[in-house]
Every structure is written in structure tokens, then in C-alpha cells.
């Protein structure tokens, strides 16, 4: 057990004792226990690049995901749920802050970028921590580290980071699997780092003597494009250059046990108090390097096998919750940070072996795109104590988890807190309840607005040819407005903007009103 876990448990017990003994509070020990057990644990499984059609519970036939399907069968499976953006960093930012990333012009970050969530900013983990929860993030971070004033020194304490925005414990892949540094960061320290072999990272020029993909392509296990062909680690070239830190290097094929064991250790250490675990997967992001135990489990190559690995990880954590008697009183949210992408920097045969598998289901586009495939993702809520199984077709957004959990706990949010997050607790827990009326979808090059089954895509001069030519994804952007009726055109193939110009104007006006928002509206108070 980590020292931080032991410390948290000791502090929690001491806090309960002091509260019970205080003459001012006049609260008995039993009352305190009842209050704590009344707060459900919260686990968010945040998978990377998993598309709407990548699960067997969402229609996949060439890959089986029994562990995730079990959550769907015993919970609510949402079919019109969305990440807030079609790329990873903005979606993560929005989930944790309840605020759209476009408000701060947040894009995909470099591996040495400064942290984009200010320590002074309200966050979901901070709100939960302030109301009695132990909090942890395990897995991919990609929200930046450090203050942005001084370059990150990976050989000393790396902060600010997750601990400054409400997490009690963090075990991170600092950026992404395809970016340096390829090391684990536990709280403030790089794990297993040898002080005699200091770690350095550079995103501008080559440092150190490690081979690179562009210099030594014969050393690569997977050929890479120009963006991903820098320093080679574990036979895979990455984005950026890295020197030193040899003892701290991760092995990609060990992600499934390393991160899962950390998640389960946190759960075990905090099983007697309410906890929030943000489990942010590396799978099925590139480079796709599933462990040998999953290789060949599908006929779709490493991408399909990585989905099987992701399902195994999910099952192992759920089984651990059940073993500890926590599953019934734990809210599990399973979802993805954006839609699927097939080729994404490496030649791993994902395209050649795709066959008839539709990673984004019936929807056009995918990761990066303004079409539905960019943000429409699997979304499952499993909470046996409160949630009856069912399927919801309601418009749903990850950004609403903040206000909804606040509502669950009876927490009133400040006017400047989670300004885009709506209390959707009823629709999250009941498949027959109405969801959102309006929802913004953020893509790489524009904003879109959903109003019930109508979809408006704002014009953009950025046609994003790179997304189409290199990623095989329709970017969904045009220089003219686009309007679709998804009730009859789920593939967004028939532009109705010229037929319904008044609706276009109305939806653009609504989009501008949401963009100009600076505080929560009265209807959104948690």
C-alpha cells in the first residue's frame, strides 16, 4: 500500500473521530458513518479513441467486449451521448471543469506543455474532495504539467499537477503513449528514475543519443509518419525527443497491469470511505501494443486486440469492486474521450484488417471531425442501488457529470463554477427521463450545435484536408452552413441549410448565446 493511501486512511479515521467527539457538532459516530455510506463511490472509465461502434453492446460483431457489455446490460446504455470535443485534451478538460475547452482555446497539447487547468479553478475532483471523497487519477493525463513559467524539470518534483486541482493521488502517463516522456509520474515524481541518468525532453530539436525513427527506420516495429518518427522507445518512435531516464522507461505492453493495479490499490485503500477514481485509459490510442495475452484475440490486428485488452481492464476493476462488496453502491460511468480513428500516425495494419467493422457505427466522421462520429461515443451508467437497466436515446453530454454529481450530493455550485455543466441527474439515472435540449460539439476546426435531432455545423474556412488524407476521416467542415435532420439522416449526407435558412439563423444565434456565457444560468444550478 502506498504511503499516501495509508495517510489518507489515518486522516479519514481521525476526522470521523473528531467530528463525533465535538460538542459543537453534536453528531454521533453512527450518524457520521451513515453520512459517509450514503455517498456513493464514483468511478469514471475514460477510454481513449473508442468509437460508438467499437463495443459488442453497441453493435460490433468482430470484437467481443463482455465485461463492458455486462455494465450496459445492468445499467443504462446511452445512444446519443457525447464527449464535449472530438479530440482528447479538450474533452478531458471539459469533463473535469464543466466548461467548454473553446473558452480558453484549448487544443491537443505537446508532451511538455504547461498544465491548462489552473489550481484556482473549480474542478470536479476538487468539489468531490471538499465533500468527503478521496480522489485519484490513474492513466493518461494530457492536460499539461508545471506552471508554464519554468521548463519542466523531470528530475525534481513536477508540479503543479493533478494534486493541485483536487486529486489526492495520481499515477500518470504524463501526456500520451505516442509522446515523450515515456515514463510514469506518481504524484510529483518520475517513477524509478536514476539520478545518475537524468531525464530530458525537447519538442524543438534532437537531444541525446537515442536513435530516432527518421534516422533509423529499420529499428521500428511499426513504421511512423513524420510527426511520430522522433525518439525510439521500445521499438516505437514517438513525438518529441528524449534523453536519459533509461531506468524509468515504461513498457507499452505492461500498461494493462500497471495502471489497473494502481487503480485497484487505490480502491482497496479507500474502501471504507467514499472515493472518486478517474481511470483514464491509454487504450485504444496509438501506439497500439496490446500485451501478448491479447494478441490474436480478434482478426482485426492490434486495434481489435487493444479493444479486448480494454475490456479485460474494465472487468478486472469491476470484479475488484464486487469482491470488496462495493459494486452496488458505486456509480460507474464508462465512456470515451472522442470518436474512433483508424490510421493515426503508425502503420499498424489497422486499416487493412478493418474489414466490415464500423468503428463509429452508422455515423460519419470520427476523431477530429465535426460530424457525429467525432463526439458521439459509448456512454454507460451502472449504479445498481439506483439505476434500472435500459436504453436512453436522450441527448447527453459528459460535461454534465460535474453538475449532476453536485446535485446528487446536494452541493450548490457557484455562478462561475462549471458554467457549461447542467444538472442531468434524472436522465443519467432513468432512461425514460428527458436529456439536454441543446449541446455543443467541438471539433478541430469549428463548432456545431445539436438541438434535439437537428444538427448545425458552423461554416469554416479550414477544410482540414490533412484529416481526410492522413486519417481517412471526413472533417465535416465547409465554407457554408450545414444543417442536418438526424432523425432521417444519421449519416449527415443531406445538407438542409438552404431549405431551412430561418432554422440556420436561429441555431447560429443560440450557439453565439452559449459562447458568450460567463456564468451559470439559474436553470443549471446544482
Descriptive account of the structure:
The chain is of the alpha/beta class and 526 residues long. The protein has helices spanning 3-21, 29-37, 66-73, 88-97, 124-129, 255-269, 301-323, 401-408, 425-429, 465-471, 501-515, and strands at 41-47, 76-78, 81-82, 134-140, 169-173, 185-186, 189-190, 200-202, 232-233, 236-237, 241-243, 275-280, 330-336, 379-382, 390-392, 396-397, 438-442, 447-451, 454-457, 482-485. A hairpin with a 2-residue loop joins strand 18 (447-451) and strand 19. Helix 6 (255-269) runs parallel beside helix 7. Residues 1-37 have low confidence and may be disordered.
Q: How helix-rich are the residues, as a percent range?
A: 10-25%
* Average pLDDT for all residues: 92
Instruction: Please identify the oligomeric state.
Output: single chain
Radius of gyration: 23 Å
Detail the poorly predicted runs: 1-37
Largest sheet: 10 strands, mixed
Give the class from helix and strand content and strand pairing: alpha/beta
Amino acid at each position: 500500500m502506498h504511503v499516501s493511501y495509508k495517510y489518507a486512511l489515518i486522516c479519514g479515521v481521525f476526522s470521523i473521530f473528531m467530528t463525533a467527539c465535538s460538542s459543537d457538532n453534536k453528531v454521533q459516530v453512527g450518524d457520521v458513518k451513515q453520512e459517509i455510506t450514503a455517498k456513493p463511490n464514483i468511478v469514471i472509465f475514460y477510454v481513449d479513441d473508442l468509437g460508438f461502434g467499437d463495443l459488442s453492446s453497441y453493435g460490433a460483431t468482430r470484437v467481443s467486449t463482455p465485461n463492458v457489455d455486462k455494465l450496459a446490460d445492468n445499467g443504462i446504455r446511452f445512444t446519443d451521448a457525447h464527449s464535449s470535443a472530438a479530440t482528447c485534451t479538450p474533452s478531458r478538460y471539459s469533463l473535469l471543469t464543466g466548461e467548454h475547452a473553446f473558452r480558453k482555446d484549448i487544443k491537443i497539447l505537446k508532451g511538455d506543455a504547461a498544465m491548462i487547468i489552473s489550481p484556482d479553478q473549480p474542478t470536479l475532483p476538487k468539489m468531490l474532495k471538499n465533500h468527503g471523497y478521496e480522489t485519484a487519477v490513474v492513466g493518461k493525463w494530457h492536460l499539461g504539467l508545471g506552471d508554464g513559467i519554468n521548463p519542466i524539470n523531470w528530475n525534481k518534483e513536477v508540479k503543479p499537477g493533478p494534486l493541485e486541482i483536487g486529486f489526492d493521488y495520481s499515477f500518470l502517463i504524463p501526456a500520451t503513449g505516442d509522446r515523450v516522456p515515456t515514463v510514469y509520474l506518481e504524484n510529483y515524481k518520475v517513477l524509478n528514475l536514476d539520478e545518475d541518468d537524468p531525464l530530458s525532453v525537447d519538442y524543438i530539436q534532437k537531444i541525446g543519443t537515442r536513435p530516432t525513427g527518421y534516422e533509423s527506420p529499420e529499428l521500428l516495429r511499426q513504421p511512423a509518419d513524420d510527426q511520430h518518427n522522433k525518439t525510439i522507445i521500445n521499438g516505437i518512435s514517438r513525438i518529441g525527443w528524449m534523453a536519459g531516464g533509461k531506468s524509468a522507461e515504461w513498457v507499452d505492453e505492461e500498461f494493462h497491469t500497471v495502471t489497473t493495479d494502481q487503480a485497484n490499490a487505490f480502491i482497496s485503500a479507500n474502501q471504507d470511505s467514499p472515493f472518486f477514481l478517474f481511470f483514464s485509459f491509454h487504450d485504444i490510442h496509438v501506439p497500439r501494443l496490446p500485451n501478448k495475452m491479447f494478441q490474436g484475440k480478434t482478426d482485426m490486428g492490434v486495434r481489435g486486440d487493444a479493444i479486448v485488452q480494454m475490456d479485460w481492464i474494465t472487468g478486472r476493476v469491476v470484479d475488484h469492486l464486487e469482491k470488496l462488496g462495493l459494486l452496488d453502491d458505486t456509480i460507474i460511468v464508462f465512456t470515451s474521450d472522442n470518436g474512433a480513428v483508424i490510421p493515426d500516425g503508425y502503420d499498424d495494419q489497422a486499416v487493412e484488417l478493418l474489414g466490415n467493422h464500423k468503428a463509429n457505427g452508422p455515423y460519419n466522421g470520427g476523431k477530429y471531425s465535426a460530424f457525429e462520429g467525432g463526439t458521439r461515443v459509448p456512454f454507460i451508467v451502472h449504479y445498481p442501488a439506483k439505476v434500472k437497466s435500459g436504453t436512453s436515446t436522450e441527448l447527453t453530454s459528459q460535461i454534465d457529470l460535474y453538475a449532476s454529481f453536485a446535485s446528487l450530493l446536494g452541493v450548490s455550485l457557484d455562478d462561475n463554477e462549471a458554467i457549461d455543466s447542467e444538472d442531468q441527474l434524472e436522465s443519467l439515472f432513468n432512461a425514460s427521463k428527458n436529456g439536454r435540449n441543446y449541446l455543443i460539439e467541438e471539433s478541430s476546426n469549428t463548432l456545431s450545435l445539436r438541438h434535439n435531432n437537428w444538427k448545425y455545423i458552423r461554416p469554416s474556412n479550414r477544410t482540414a484536408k490533412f484529416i481526410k488524407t492522413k486519417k481517412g476521416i471526413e472533417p465535416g467542415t465547409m465554407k457554408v452552413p450545414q444543417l442536418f435532420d438526424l432523425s432521417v439522416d444519421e449519416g449527415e449526407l443531406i445538407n438542409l441549410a438552404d431549405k431551412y435558412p430561418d432554422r440556420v439563423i436561429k441555431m447560429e444565434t443560440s450557439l453565439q448565446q452559449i459562447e458568450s456565457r460567463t456564468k451559470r444560468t439559474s436553470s443549471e444550478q446544482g
